[in-house]
Model the fold of this input.
Amino acid sequence: MQPKMITLTVNGRKHQVALNPDETLLNALRQLNYTDVKNGCEKGDCGACAVLLNGKAVNSCLVLAWQADGSEILTNAGLGTMDNPHPIQEAFADAGAAQCGYCTPGMIISAKALLDQNPHPSEEEIREAISGNLCRCTGYAQIITAIQIAAERIAASALVGSGQGGKQ
Done:
């Protein structure tokens, strides 16, 4: 197979890479040192490799890298930093929603996709949104709580940002 030159924009950073046509996005991201994208099952069952591809949560093990050529890819690491975490990342930490941490980046990506589409999800909608992400440690209760907390915090910051929140 002849490698193909593609452009992957990951967390706002452009990468020109030559990849074989059968290379998955997961493997391409790992080769580019995006180690927050976890290599779990490699068949789309666990969600550990979830990323946002043009705003949609996908399992990167099921996407060929060339299919993401020219697309915007966001990983958990692109959401925030230790000093300035995204509200979802902060809520996961505050709620104790990460134990071993292996599933956490994918869970956070699925939560981000949900909250971008539905800022006030019900518990059932949260469960549905993370149904493709497997966690063997937490039992999901803390994860659901974290997503509820994140939704509240994002909504509150939006109100403050619009001038509708805070003291009158």
Observations:
- The radius of gyration is 17 Å.
- Residues 87-161 form a domain with the DNA polymerase; domain 1 fold (CATH 1.10.150.120).
- The longest helix spans residues 141-161.
